[in-house]
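Hi everyone, sorry if this is the wrong subforum. Our group has a chain we'd like a structural model of before ordering constructs, and none of us has done structure prediction before. Sequence below.
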Amino acid sequence: MNLQQRINAFVKLGDFLSQFSNEVIRKNDNVEHNDTFFDGFKHQLKLAEENNGWFTQENIRFSIKNWTEALTTKNLNKWLEPYQINITKPKQVAIIMAGNIPLVGFHDFLSVLISGHHVLIKQSSNDKHILPYLAKYLEFVQPEFKGTMTFTEDKIEGFDAVIATGSNNTARYFEHYFKNKPSIIRNNRNSVAVLSGKESKEELVALSEDIFRYYGLGCRNVSKLFVPKNYNFDAFFEAMYHWHPIIDKAKYANNYDYNKAVYLMSEFDMLENGFLMIKEDESHASPIATVFYEYYESPKQLKEKLDKEIQQIQCIVSNGFTENEITFGATQKPQLWDYADSVDSIEFLLAI
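Answer:
Right subforum, don't worry. Here is the predicted structure as tokens:
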């Protein structure tokens, strides 16, 4: 199986997923193997939500829509064009996946297979239904994928390299356990937004997507704001308001109530609007339903601070603040070439 055949298979997978990316699921008779897989995938989406209350159908659809838009011939070719991909002796690459948002490990899965290696997957129990089904679909559209994808719930063994994602504590364990293997080890990171006070209403409304999508559980979600001295939060809260129905979700509401009670009992100063709290705090990782903020004296001083803390940061959302910034509203729509932790996984996979 050559690179073009692998690309074609993932394009067909994107066509299959496109049927499930909108609020109304519509079957497309032109999609290959639909009679075999369509109804079964609808069932897997239902199971995913039942297994994990954070995986609402809305958030699953959002993730699927992003992958539908990414898995096109144009995007895949643009992504892979800089590399010389010609692996003749595939290696077994283990992936230990997180489960914080739907299909969070799909990019690693795609990267290993598109580069020509075999994949050994240990999924999170929080996100275990969707990917195995998509792997089976790939085997149907390109039979040569059979035998290249293995899912396990047991201890991973017999692998040549590993990509592992976890908390800061588990990352330390991974680094020790996999010290003799080529590896990419990812730990906790968070995303921040730098506000100047001159943002338009549209930019702040877009920022709300970066904050609330996936309930703020992703590493690309904005959990911390940097604002100038004497920043007025009125426009910020106004722009957040259209997300107020989020408080109707029981898991989110329970976290909101709990964290609010903790802040009140601890007599912390915070501002809140009934579904979001903001609290002045130097930390990057904020609890669910909370965004931390910190004042800065000058853009220069803030850039120096963020440079020192770069290992804790996944994305910086801003307008004209820094070279590699993400535009407001775009954190949860990464391109194929936007690598987690800025570590080029294709380059890694071609070097093992």
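For your construct planning: The CA atoms of residues 51 and 352 lie 36 Å apart. The chain has a mean pLDDT of 96.
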